[in-house]
Amino acid sequence: MLLKVDIIQVFCSQLNFINWLQNHLIPCPFKYLTGLDCPGCGFQRSMVALIHGDFHKSVDLYPAAIPLISLSIYLIFDKYFKLDNSKNVVKKTLFMIVGGIILTSYCIKMWGLFSHYKASA
Q1: What confidence score (pLDDT) does residue 52 get?
Q2: CA-based angle 37:76:86, to the nearest 5?
Q3: What is the pLDDT of residues 6-61, one digit of tens each?
Q4: The pLDDT of residue 56
């Protein structure tokens, strides 16, 4: 597994893909309009950190990135191999876990952003 990651890093760095990607990230329209981060802010930077192989920085930037990738991979495999039962229990559970991670990390981020207003009020 580690060898595959190294091969991907070398391939992407040789194509100068990572530098291009860092300079062409899509801006967040919610943040542009409100000045506040949306629940998805940080995902692109987290993916770039994963491509660089920096797992810790990726989790710091967006804690739900790896669970979202895992969910996406599961959904692709489920589409072709029918891994879930007829009531889609596994999919529903995974959606709730990933949604909970996104909501929790967003609340923690907003709490840290607005916690200084209590002291001044």
Answers
A1: 84
A2: 105
A3: 676 666 565 677 778 788 899 999 999 999 999 999 999 999 999 888 999 999 99
A4: 95
pLDDT, position 17: 74
Here the tokens at position 75 are 């959904």
pTM above 0.85, yes or no: no
Residues 6+ apart with CB under 8 A from 25: 44, 45, 48
Burial bucket for residue 82 (CB in 10 Å: 0-12, 13-18, 19+): exposed
Nearest to 47 by CA among 24, 79, 14, 30: 24
DSSP 28-97: PHHHHHHSS--TTTTHHHHHHHHHHT-HHHHHHH-TTHHHHHHHHHHHHHHHHH--S-TT-HHHHHHHHH
Whole-angstrom Cα distance, residue 40 to residue 76? Answer: 21
Q: Which DSSP string do the residues of 79-112 spell out, in sequence order?
A: HHH--S-TT-HHHHHHHHHHHHHHHHHHHHHHHH
- Please give the Cα distance from 62 to 34 (Å, whole number): 20
